[in-house]
Amino acid sequence: MQTSLNEPTTRKPWLTLRRREAIACALFIAPAVIGFVLFWVTPLAVSAYISLTDYALAGTPRFVGLENYQRLFADRLFWQAVRVTLTYALIVVPMWIISSLTLALIMNQKLRGVAAFRTVYYLPAVLSGVATAMLWAWLFNYRSGLLNGLLSSLGLQGPNWLGDKNIALFSIILMSLWTMGWYLPIWLSGLQGIPTELYEAAEMDGANAWQRLFNVTLPMLSPVILYNLVINIIFATQLFTEPMMMTGGGPQFATLSYVLYLYDNAFSYLKMGQATAMAWLLFLFTLALSALVFKLSPLWVYVESERRG
Amino acid sequence: MNRSKLSRRDFLKIGAAAGAMTLAGCAAPAAAPQQPAPAAGTEATTGPAAVPAAGEIEYFTYDLGPANQSREEMRDAFQAANPGAKVKVTVLPYDEMWQKVAALMAAGQPPDVMYGDFSLVRNALEGQLLDLTDYMKADPVLSDPNQFTVNMQDDIQAKYGTSKIVALIMGTWVPILYYNKDMFDAAGVAYPTEDWTWEDAREAARKLTKDDRSQFGMQLGTTFDNVGWMWWGQKPDNFWAIPQAFPETCNFNNPTGIGVMQVYYDLTHVDKSAPTPDEASGYSNYAGPFGAGKAAMYSGGDWDAGWSFRELPFKWDMTLTPKMRKDYRPALNTMVATNTIASATKNPDIAWNFIRFITATEEGQKLVGKGAYETPVLKGVAESDEVLKPEWAPAGYGARVKAASLPGPMFTPYPLNINLWEFPSKFLDPTVDNVRRGEMTPEQAVEYLDKEGKPYFEQQRKDTPPIP
Amino acid sequence: MAGITSTAPLTQASSLRRNRRWQSRLVRLASYAVLIAGCIVFLIPLFWQVTTSLKTIQDAMRWPPVWLPLPPQWQNYSELFKRFPFWVYAGNSAFISAMVILGTLVSSSLAAYGFARLRMPGRDAIFVLLLATLMLPGVVLVIPQFVMFQRLQWVNTYNPLIIPAFFGSPFFIFLLRQFFLTIPRELEDAARMDGAGYLRIWGQIMLPLAGPALIAVAIYSFVGTWNDFLGPLIYLSDREKYTVAVALRYLAGGMRSRPEYHLLMAAATLSILPCILLFFAAQRWFIQGQVFTGVKG
């Protein structure tokens, strides 16, 4: 490849510079395109087929039409999993954003030591899901855990964080907030990108800090906020490791996340057909949200600007 | 045996070395099960050493805690007796084991030998387990029913729902009532006896419960197990079985089913002498309040004795599970531990020799007894002092052998179907939890189970492969 | 009177200014208080993890909690190594991570260069398609991929975890492409004049200049692979092949008596150590890469 690409002249007349570049481009992106076809397109097509069959890994899939989807819609645990996952995503993502944005606004006042603070807040976001889940299961332990230890030193009886069906999901949400530092850099760079003239003008008009926040800062950040809101709802619907490690989906299915139920169907009950049907429904849901993202997306903006440029 | 016990959190025992992977790597995907006629030349009386096969087999077993040690001892003893044969022991968490087996079976790279309970029924029905009928017929010990405490042939066929012999029974499991002697002494209550009914147990539990919830009278172990035992204690019925074979018996709404739920309801909700699900879930050790010294009695399996109670820091003892009816004591050998061989194995003879060693030789069975996870089935060994009275065990330890030897057929208290754990985890356990919380009466519970269970089992029947 | 009227606004203004200064000082103070309190809350779990790992099991389970591990039980770690072959698992994780980083860097940077610089009809459409997969939850593909790899007899090998990395990852292709776009074209043009081919331009000009972005990619793929749970859980069955994330499960509950939280926390501490060290060493790139794309990986 190297030599042919390096060859400055060519005998074949059809191999124009433009063609050469196109061939080179094709070669450069070939691995990615092959990977895309092998690991994304094909599995997606295969899964569409499996979702229409009864398949238990052994033997051959037996075509059953839309039965898997019908069974899912009649399955109360499927709806429970949907409910748990939506509850989780719709609570945790706004909370992530509000808490991290508040912190970013505080940090943005040219305080000293911001870098150190940012480090501390960011750190949990890079830690492993499994180790974190185990740590939090230990913190949440009803009898010897730190949280109830702290509460009891205040004279309070702590709840059964992971054992009470009314609380367990919120315990997992609480734990998820630990990783909200992930957003800090996004907000901080966004805040720094807001032209100072806007603030000066607002101040001239006599706007106080709150008014500046609501009339300048948030409107300027709103595209980024909206984008992060939607895309992280997509990511939050993939909740799996935490309930798997901490509660197994219990008590009484209070933490049965969509992906956990999908995993159980696939690998515990070997109902590959139903599991892939679940995957496809999730895919369609994601597709709908993604369409929204693409409308709002800075990603899209990048691509557009490149085309124009 | 159950999901919660051996669930997602098992602790470590070092697995064994790699190597079978290279074997497995070139194995073809399991298509039709191969019919493995025993080597023609071998005499009927062959001991393991008579087949000089050399090679390595992989043995999958789930995590048995301290009893993992006994698996390693079995391997060592077998290898010593069979030069050239190697066994690689792989220990997996309980849940994970069946999933891995299924995945490896489908990939055509199954382990050669699998320890197990009912979870392999599906594999038996799919023809993925080696037919051992001829091997067994040719074996002088195994073909003699008088040598064993169980009826090897009938029990296996009942258990796996096949007409073939696809496993060997290496041990039995029975229900047991454990009690904390210190607590009984402190409260001045007489120890349980094997004549106790659940009414007696209930009364004692009331006396042993403290109002501040710091001590419970009774703790019921795994729901799945206890429901089956209590059912059996009233009426020896194959009430759950392979749905395809026994579709009409999946029925909860009857006096027997209500009787089971009533025990839960009375103890937990009426008397409050057993912990509610919330109270029990706060304990992170396996045996919950009983293991933590907070419950006076525990209804569990005999495996608990060797597995989790060996080192309890208080005086404890065990006896037969309470009777559900005063005048009625059915046979209690309710479950069996088996070893099975994958049809796709490359070394059927070594695999057979290995499971035969564990099941039908004195040496192997003694190691079973020493591991104390199962009760041995070879009569001479099961009734020896070595098994009945290990030094760590309490005086009542012999109850596990006695219970296994009570006359009567082994029963199948579990919903034997292709997705063994689905019904309990989706329907049964949550329903019983609702009863324990007082959110459902026994009548509502059985009604609900039938409403959910009937269509479920109906579906299962459609999905189950035909019996080979 | 005139004096009064003229000074009134002045004093008002100065008191306003004083007020402002006072107010802003108060705000700053409150801000620090909030930030520091938040830091403490954020660090307590890790503090608890490390201290638990250094306690005796009795102290770990004691009620009310014992705050400090005195004296620290360093032998917990040697006990852990005796019972749990941590280094085997860490070695497996490191091997897989290294291969994934290698594969990702090479394939993604090649594709990114193609997408950023070389023109081909339909190129942008392909790029948008690739980008669309960013939105697709990976779990959707888990089952068909499993079926596929199982047919390839790749179950219980590292192949399913490593090989896909050699075919590029849309997220990293995107990240690197964005970076390549910021590199001035003049450099390439000069090289082209000297007769350099595309591969040489990629290797000798683009890659060295894209150092920070490549580091960000390497870091992300390391953290992602090291922490990956579902992949190894599904594909690996041989314990000797386990990664740290999957092996940790074996310590998570001693059913026979109490779970051994001191050992569990010791293992958890060790398992997150590489990520923590990497984070402190390379924080800059972590954050840069993230701001660059604005996407949560």
Description:
The complex is a heterotrimer of chains A (309), B (468) and C (297). In chain A, 69% of the residues lie in helices and 3% in strands. Chain A is built from 15 helices and two strands. In chain A, strands 1-2 form a two-stranded antiparallel ribbon. In chain A, strand 1 and strand 2 form a beta hairpin. The longest helix of chain A has 34 residues, at 17-50. Chain A is flat, with a radius of gyration of 25 Å. With 468 residues, chain B is α/β, with parallel strands linked by helices. Helices cover 40% and strands 13% of the residues of chain B. Chain B has helices at residues 20-25, 68-81, 94-106, 121-125, 133-137, 152-160, 181-187, 198-208, 223-234, 255-270, 277-281, 288-291, 303-307, 348-360, 362-371, 379-382, 385-388, 399-405, 422-436, 442-463, and strands at residues 55-62, 85-92, 113-116, 167-173, 175-180, 216-220, 295-301, 316-320, 335-341, 375-376. A six-stranded mixed β-sheet of chain B has the order 2-1-3-9-4-10, with helices on both faces. The longest helix of chain B has 22 residues, at 442-463. Chain B is globular, with a radius of gyration of 22 Å. The two termini of chain B are 25 Å apart. The relative contact order of chain B is 0.18. Chain C has 297 residues and is an all-alpha fold. Chain C is flat and about 70 Å long. Helices cover 73% and strands 0% of the residues of chain C. The termini of chain C are far apart. The chains are: A mainly alpha (309), B alpha/beta (468), C mainly alpha (297). The interface between A and C is large, with 105 and 107 residues.
Key terms for this structure?
heterotrimer, B: 468 residues, alpha/beta, 6-stranded mixed beta sheet, 4-stranded mixed beta sheet, 20 helices, 10 strands, globular, disordered N terminus, C: 297 residues, mainly alpha, 73% helix, flat
